[in-house]
Structures are given as structure tokens and as C-alpha cells.
Amino acid sequence: MKAVFVAALLSLSSCFALSPQQQLSQLASAGNGIIKLNAETYDLLTSPKRNWSASIQFTALDARRKCSPCKDFNPSWNAVAKAWANAPANVRQEHFFATLDFDDASSVFQKLGLNSAPIVFNYPPTDGDRKPASGNTSPIKYDFSDGFEARPLAEFLSKFTPVPIPYKDPIDWAKFVTIAIGVLGSLLFLRFIAPIVQNRWSWAAATVVTILVMVGGYMFTRIRGVPYNGGNGNWIAGGYQNQFGQEVQVVAFIYGLLSFALLMLILVVPHQKSPQRQRLQVYLWTGVTMIVYSVLVSLFRVKNRGYPFKLFL
Amino acid sequence: MSTAYPIPSDVSPATVRNTASLLRIVALALISGAAIASLLSMNCACIGPLLVEKKILTVTIAILGSTSVGVNLLWSRATRVLAAKGFYEFWNWFDPTAWYPLGRVVGGTVYPGLMVTSGIIYNFLHALNLPVDIRNVCVLLAPGFSALTAWATYMFTKEMKDESAGLLAAAFIGIVPGYISRSVAGSYDNEAIAIFLLMFTFYCWIKALKQGSALFGTLAALFYFYMVAAWGGYAFITNMIPLHALALLLMGRFSSRLYVAYTSWYAIGTLASMQVPFVSFQPVSTSEHMGALGVFGLLQIVAFAQLVRTHVSSQQFQKLLYGAVVAIGVLGAFAFVFLTYKGKIAPWTGRFYSLWDTGYAKKYIPIIASVSEHQPTAWPSFFMDLQFLVFTFPAGVVLCFRELRDEHIFVILYSVVASYFAGVMVRLMLTLTPVVCVASAVALSTLLDTYIDPVEPVAEEDVDDAVSANGSSSATPPSQPASKKAKKAAAAPAKTALGDFVAATNSKGGPPRRKGIFGLDSRLVVLFNTLSMLVFFVFHCTWVTSNAYSSPSVVLASQNPDGSQHIIDDFREAYYWLRQNTPKDSVVMSWWDYGYQIAGMADRPTLVDNNTWNNTHIATVGKAMSSSEEVAYPILRKHDVDYVLVIFGGLIGYSGDDINKFLWMVRIAQGVWPDEIQEPNYFTPQGEYRIDDRASKTMKESLMYKMSYYRFNELFGGQQAVDRVRQQQVPKEGPTLDYLGLLLSSSPGTCAHNEAEILPILTDEAFTSENWIVRIYEVKKEDLLGRDLKSANQFAQGKKRKRSKPAPRRRAIVCKIYEDSRLWMNKTGHCFLLFVRIKSSTLSDLREFRSQEIPERSALSRSFPILRTPTAQDAKEERSIYIHTHPTSNAQRPLPSLSAKGHRPFLSSLRSEPINLPQAQVRPSIFLFSLFKCYHSLFVMTLFEIIQNIPNLDCSISSGGSQQSRTD
């Protein structure tokens, strides 16, 4: 009790002693570049008359909240804030990074009407020469459309800081070493893999796999970042212009099987010496073509409801 | 020899060959004819069943005649200019109604190939005294070229395998939906002729490579030039051919044939392509073209190394030579990187860069990412466009690997690259389609060859007897002796079915074969299966074309409850309303998708249109649409906008409307004004895109939202209004408009009778089409009493005036028109302003200025009439002329004044693409550069030819020398 009182007194005295900005910069340097906010310091940081700007991360890191995006995003936030701590000392005081956890200040969440996390708000200064020209000082929300990575975050926040945030991507040593080992290894084993590299059929396989994956819509899943499947066993995305990751595999496999059947008929079957065996193979691959093609068409009918044709299925 | 089915034995080989070639010609003619006819008829097919009805008939005719050209009305207008006034007039054609108030130099900012082609056809037909309307030429151009595409594909595939595969490929490309979408009658688009040019250039290249012929190399270059003039996708050829050459080099297949073919193509093709004004210096300054240049250099080095190697005996020196070649290659690559870094070579343009880094476009150039044709392709689109070809295509590629001649490598590379591109952008499906047809045709024709072939092989138990009986001939692998003999004896292609057939009829007692199919039933099963797949393909193509691709975008069709067809003709209704009811010079603002349609069908100036060359201007429109009325109004007024047009599908469930495109407008505006427009503000706090009660405030206040839902709930008579596209309930309290609308203050007489209804202030609903798809609003002029429109409107409604801040009226980027009529440039972002300075800007002076000071034929005088007629306010206010120029020029540089001859440099400075050199120096330097390159390549080629003959000479000399030394 006494300790609390002393602490309150201390903070009170420091309040009197220091300007809010100095106070905040003390808090920031104490928290490794990040101010850990509670309801009071939040009000201090976002006081209506401020000549500093602030970026606040609203998050819920406590395990009970089960907020996995918060945990995914927090390292990026810390990295950017730490990079700002290395900015020149004279401008460092003009922009603050802060984190507000739901469990520390749920009242702020209520006040702002936030019911999701993580959220990043950027508070422009309301005073001083960095005041926005448009006069609009309402906080600006960070759009997570670029994901939780640190680089787009740093690029976005640099628009509001007095100087761009000196953020550098950490060097991905694991990737670097893997590539180096791969290159060195393939150079060392060049003698052994040369027959593979020089064999046209390995190239053919690579080509065909590439083509199949591409016509299976792989680039769509890459660019749109669609999930692998829809959960609870649902792997076909509704709609003609949409698909899940698993559909790429299924469709590429179907195409591959049909191509394979065709190639068997063209390349392998004519070389059969025995008429009976050859006849068996002809019927086998023709049957495979018919059935798999029917499956393909019925799959397409699922995607495009208006398609009028169907085969055996 | 045993055959599976009886074949006539009394036919001479010559007869067989002649019949086959006759059949081939007939088939090709039929395919071409069918391609044209099907494309024509399929266009009608959507409305075809009801042709009896007179009204529908007229609709059909109207659509075929004018409106389905609406896809590219600008280009048909351009063609009209070309046909009517000649080539040079077209080249300098300044269209003041597009991109108001900038205007657009059409000749310099389009690929002119399409217009020139149709202009030539038109003039040719008129020279024959066939009075064809230019419009009909435009409509029928695409089907005509699709027939040529079928022919080019036939020629190309013939080089890959044989004629039968060629015929199959031609048939495929004639009907495959992936290509038909671009070749239906009336789709007057660059792609219509581009695919023919693509295939024919590739054919010439393959032919040049096979024969080492400079003639075909030159032909390839000429068609490449045509392609450059016709379509921006020419960069595909620019990179495919070097890629092929590089692959051949890496595989150790360098030959003089490759050298001659590539050098002649590259030198002439690059020179020719630089003559297109839109391209000009790009082939030597942008990264897209550097690959071709690099391979050109590499080929020279390799050729030189080959030459030196033949003359040098020392092993060490050869090693040194290889080292030098590698070093030069590495150095060249570094130099390229360095030059790019220093900015000497422009990096990849956004559209191409977005092909590699697929996330790039969405982030940095939303304007490219927003186009629906630039979306990635999901697998159903592949299947829809290619159907069963999509899985015969990999089989064909594998068959190419089996033989792996030089031209097969081309098909393999093409298929890999194009399938990647088609996956990234729906639009590039078009480049994938030809190679799919070619490879599938190779696969299917091999299959048919194998299974139609009547010759039965010798069964396993008989083989031993046959071997012993025939001795040496069957000891060697079976296919080789037959083919060699046949080639020498009958000159018939022995590998094909025809050759086998000829061989079978010719010599009955030929060597028994080991490879083949036994029995008739196996053959019939496979053939039946293949044929039914082909038939299914035809049904599929017919269905896709009649359903998905032939409905013109301006007329929608739906089904009545009784099954009859209901035509929704709102677009044309609205455009004709504009045409009939508005002054000819009134400016219409809409989202850029409708720019060409408004320009073509309503004949009114537009702010933005379907061409994407000015991002800022499109973003301006996006900003106006996505901000509140108070912010939007000054923008509208500054751009002299009289009418705003929005597309709204909420009533009938037309999903391609502006509310669904709205986020792209926001994104594009955000790219230019990140402080004022922010995408998250348009979502609900939960991150949903909604239009109902829960919609965000910014969303509800945006001009687009207001214009879309203005008075929408009145339609439901007190019931809950439902948007049928979004399936959401529209708020009971509809939006009000203050700044668009009926002119309350300036024309009090007109509004007196319906005072009760009038709520709007900024714009007024001027017109709403039958199904509410098109809604047009009129922008109100400033209040005569100087009030802002909101308070004026409130006054008119009898409300008490609120004391509020006046709407922010930021100054327009304008300047005074002063006496000395010089042009001044001033930099504002990417846009340059050209100021005409006149001191005494009274009304009469302004008129005089218009007639006197500006030379009659200058671009400025053409853009000047579109300034609206001066009003009393103009005398007080400052007027400006905005003209877009390229951003590399110096700011504040007085242009050479607009004297009569001065309009040329001025015009050419209006280019959209940045050019590094001042325009005045371009022509001579292009010429010099061309000359230099021409001489260089000619010189190198002759040198190479000479060198080719040296080794013989050289051998004799060196052998003589060695003899001498020995004797010594």
C-alpha cells in the first residue's frame, strides 16, 4: 500500500516536473521504444493538444483472449518500434510507439468502440508545425491488407513520422544458407546429377508439372491468398471465379491423369507385342479417359451451375 | 502384309496424294468459312431465337451495326477519321472530347495497326467501287482475321508435325472459346488482329530458323512490326523469340541458321518497331526489350567464338576463348543492371512488372489491378475457354519432347511461359490459346494416325518367323529403314498415316512392323472415344460462345417468367437521352469503364475513358466519387462537369455496377491522395463492405453512395427497400443530395411546381433509366446569391439556416489569362498546366482571343472550344487550360510560342509515356541509329557468310603450310 502511494506520489511529482512530451519519451525509452499504455497514459498520449504524433497498437496478447493474429502481429510491431528507437534523438521525441493491451485498459476499447484486435491507429499532432495541412486530426487506421509483415507497416507509418523510420528487414540467414548449400551441393554433385539435367524426360516432367499446376489455377491461389480448403471437408469453393488451394491439386491431378492416359495410348500401347495384352490396355485407358473426363465435367458443373452438358456422371 | 480393314489396292500413290491435298484445301476453306460464319451467327444467337419479332430484329441490327462496337467506340471513331481524312490527319488527330479538359492526341497514344488495317480495307473496297460503310468494315474485321488466324495456325502446326495436325489445330482455333471471345463480329479490338499476327510471326520465325533463311527472318520482322503497331502485347514476341534462341544456344544447338534467322529478325524488326510513335525509343531503353538485345549480342559473341575456334588449334586458346566469352556475358549482364540502376534503361513498366511480382500491381498501381481482365485466372476459366484441349495440351508437349527438333523447343517454351501468364491474368488466356491448339492438335493427330493406320503389326509369336524371313531389314529398329527408304523413293512423308497408307497400297510385301495396333475393335474404341470428345467440344464451344461471349455489353438479356426473352436496354436509353436532351458541349463524368461508350453513343465529352494513360485524372474522378458532396463539388465545377453518370444495379440485380466497383475508385484515389481518402473508412468497424444501416459514415456520405441510392426507397412505397445485388436492406432514410440536382436557385420557375419533392442541392437527378441501371445527375451551378448550395437548398425548403462553416472551396489550379499569349508550364504533380495569359479578360476579349490569338490549326484551338461558353462569372474568375504533357520537361519553361508552324513540337510533347530525348531530336537520331544498326547488321551478316566459306579455303592454306614446313 505504501509502495503504491509512493509510486503515485512519484509519478505525480514527475508530472509536475516534466512536460508531457518528456514524460512520454521517458516512458518510451524505459519500454525499449514502446510505451505500454493504460487508461491514464492513453489519455496523456492522445491529449487533444499535442505537438507529437503517436502510433498505437490495440491488442490482446493475454493467452485467455485467444487472439492469434495479435501474437502474429506483435513481433512486427516491436521490430518497427525498435527501429524508431534508433532514429536521431531530436526527432525521436516527436513520434511515439505505444501498445495498449485489452486487459490493461478495456475502458479505452469501449470508449473507441473497438471490438476486434489487433488495430493500429495513428494519431497526427494537433499542434505545432507538423499539424496536418487538411486540419483533419482524427486517427488514421492501418489497413492490414498487406499482411502482418513489418516492412509494409514501416512504410505506412513513415508517412506520419517526421523522418522515415530507419527500418531494415532482418537478413533471412536461414534462407541464405539454404540457397548457398543448395547451390554448392548441386555444384559438387554436378557429375551425379548431370544425367538428370541432361535428360530430356526430366525436363519434360518438369514442364508438364508446371503447365498442369498453372492451368489448375495455382497463380490464382497465390495472388488471392485463398485458403487451402473451406474447412469441415468442404474443398470446392462456390462460384465460377473462385477456388481453394486443394482444387489446384485435384484438378491438376485429373488433367495429368487424362494426359497420361492419352500418352499411354499414343506411346506405349502400339509397342505391345501381344494382341490380348494390347487390347486390354486400349480398353483400360479408354475407360479411364471416359470416366475421369466425366468426373471433370461434373466437377465443372459444380463450379458453373449453368453448364448444360454432362457425361456419364 | 495384314491390314485391320480392307483398303483399295488399285489406287496409284499420285492419286492418293492429290486427293489428300484437295481434301486439305477444302477442309481449310471450310474451317475459315466456318470460323467467320460461326462468329457472325453466334453473335446473333443470343437474340436469334426471337428474330421473328420485329422489335427484336431492329435491336439486333442496331447492335450489330453500332453498339456492340461499343467496346471500342473510340477506335471506330478513330478509324472513321482515318478513312475520311487520311493517314496524316489521323496521326495528328487531337480528340478534345476525351479526357476533358486535357484532350487526347489519339494518333500518338494508340497502337494504330487496327485503324490502319480497316482504313486500308475500306479504301481498297472503295477503289473497287464497293461502297461499304466504314462501320461494316469495323464490325466484320474480327471474323475476317479469325479466318486468317486459322490459316496461320495451320501453317505453324504443319511445321511442328504435318498437315493433318495443322488442319486439326486450325479447326480448334476456329472455334475455341478462348479465342472466339475476341473475334466475334463487332468486337473491334486490337486483339482481333493481334493473334493472327502473333501466329504468323512465329510461323515465319520457325521457317527462318529451319531454313536459315534471311527472307523468312525479314518476313518475321515485318509481321513483328505490324504486331507492334497493333497491340501492346507485342512484347510477348519480343521476349519469346530471344528466349527460344537462348535455349537453343544453351542446348548447344547454335548454327548459322539460328544466327541468320535471329539477326535478320532482330535488326529489321527492332528498326521497324521504332517507327511506331507510341513505341519510339522503347526498344533500346526499356527492360522489356533488353532480353532481345542481349541475345543479339550473345549470338554475335558465340558466332565469333565459333569462327575463331575453327581457326585455332591450341586447346588452351580455346579454353581462353570460352573464358573470354563467359566474361563478356557476365560483364554485359552487370552493365545492364548498372544502367538500369542508374536510370539509363527504364525499369519494367507496371503492366509487365505485375506479371512477375504479382503483388506489385495491387499495391502500387491499383489502376491496373482494378481491371477485371487483369485478375488472376481460376481453373474453371481455363476449362471454360479450352475444354478438353486443356488436358490434351500437356500430352502434346510431351510428344514435342519426343522429337525435340528446334521448333519443338519453341512450342515447349511457349507453352510454359504462356500458361504462367494466363494464370496471372485472365486477359493473357488469349496468348495461351494458340499454343494449346497447336500442342493438342499434335497429340490428337498422333493418336488418330496411330489408330487409323490400317497396317497390323506382327504379333509376338510371329516375330521370330518374320525376322528370320526378312533377315537384315527387320534387324534394325523398325521405323528407321522404312522412313529412309520411303523418303528417297517416293518422297512421301513416311511417318504419317498417309505415308503408311501410300506405302501399304504401294508395296504389299513390305517389311512387317513391330509397332502398331491389332484388330479392328481396339481401333474403333479409341476412335469413337476421340470423336465423341471432339463432338462434345463443338457443343461446348457453341454453348459458351452463344451464352458468355456474344452478348454485347450494352444490352442485357433476361428471361421473363413465361420464358420469353426480356431485353434490358438501359444503357442505350440513357446514352440517347444524353444525346437528345443535353447541350452538345456538356461534360459527362462517369467511372472510366463507360468513357468510350459515352463518347461514342452519347457523343459528349468525358472526363476519363477506358484508356489508362493518365492515372491522376482517373484518381480525380475516383476522389470526386468517393468524397462527400462538399469536397466533390469544387472538383466537379473545376472540371466543368455538367452531368454525372452512375451505374446502379441494385434494383434488378445487375452485379457489374458502380457500387461493386466503388472500392477500386477509393483505392485509386487513395493512391494519389492518401491523406484524404482512406479505404478502411469505407468499411464497417467489423471490416465489412455494407450499404445498409451499418454502413460507415464516410460510405454513406460519399457521392457515389448518394447518387446510387438517392430516392431508392421511395420506389418501395414505404416498404423496406432491398438492394438485390448486395442482398442488403437500404436505410429507410435515404441520402439527400445538395450539390447535384435541379437548379433550384438559378431557375426558380422550373422547380416551383414540384417544390415538395425537391431535396437535392448539389446535383439533381436528371434522368434514371427504366431499370434504374443508369442514373444521371446534373451538377448545379453556383448559387447566384453567393450562398453555398447546401444553405441555399435549406432555405428553399424553408429550413432555418444553420450557422456552419462554409464548404471548403479550394482554389482551382487556374491562372489568369493575360495579354501575351504565351504558354507557360507549371508543374503540379504529374500534370502540367499550360497557361494562356491574357490581361484584360472581359468577355468580348476572350472571344476575340479565341478567334485571333490562337492559330487556327493548333492543338490549343482545338481544345479551346470545349471550354464552356464564357459566362458573366468568367469575366471575374480565372480560367485555365489544362494540358497534359510528359513530366520530364522542365517546369516554367516557356514553350516556343504557338505560331502556325509551332504546333508540331507542341503536339508531340503531349505524349503520355515519358521520353528521355527532346522531341525535336528524335527523328534524326532514330534515323541515324537505324542507319547504323542496319549497316552493322548487314555488315555482320555478309561477314558471316564469307566466314562460312573460309574454312575450306583455310584448310587448304594451312595444309599447304604444314607441307611446306615439313619439307623445310
From TrEMBL, chain A:
Q: Where in the cell is it found?
A: Endoplasmic reticulum membrane
GO CC, sorted alphabetically, is: oligosaccharyltransferase complex
Tell me where the signal peptide lies. Answer: 1-17
Q: List, alphabetically, the Pfam families matched.
A: OST3_OST6 (PF04756)
Asked if Transmembrane is a keyword of the record, the answer is yes
Q: Does the keyword tRNA processing apply?
A: no
Name the family the entry cites.
Answer: Belongs to the OST3/OST6 family.
Protein name, UniProt field? Oligosaccharyl transferase subunit OST3/OST6 family
Which organism does this sequence originate in?
Gymnopilus dilepis
TrEMBL record, chain B:
Where is this chain compositionally biased, Low complexity type?
Answer: 472-486
Q: What does this protein do?
A: Catalytic subunit of the oligosaccharyl transferase (OST) complex that catalyzes the initial transfer of a defined glycan (Glc(3)Man(9)GlcNAc(2) in eukaryotes) from the lipid carrier dolichol-pyrophosphate to an asparagine residue within an Asn-X-Ser/Thr consensus motif in nascent polypeptide chains, the first step in protein N-glycosylation. N-glycosylation occurs cotranslationally and the complex associates with the Sec61 complex at the channel-forming translocon complex that mediates protein translocation across the endoplasmic reticulum (ER).
GO CC terms in record: oligosaccharyltransferase complex
Sequence ranges assigned to domain STT3/PglB/AglB core in this UniProt record: 585-637
**What organism, scientifically named, is this protein from?**
Gymnopilus dilepis
Annotated catalysed reactions: a di-trans,poly-cis-dolichyl diphosphooligosaccharide + L-asparaginyl-[protein] = N(4)-(oligosaccharide-(1->4)-N-acetyl-beta-D-glucosaminyl-(1->4)-N-acetyl-beta-D-glucosaminyl)-L-asparaginyl-[protein] + a di-trans,poly-cis-dolichyl diphosphate + H(+)
Write down the EC number. 2.4.99.18
UniProt-recorded name of the protein? Dolichyl-diphosphooligosaccharide--protein glycosyltransferase subunit STT3
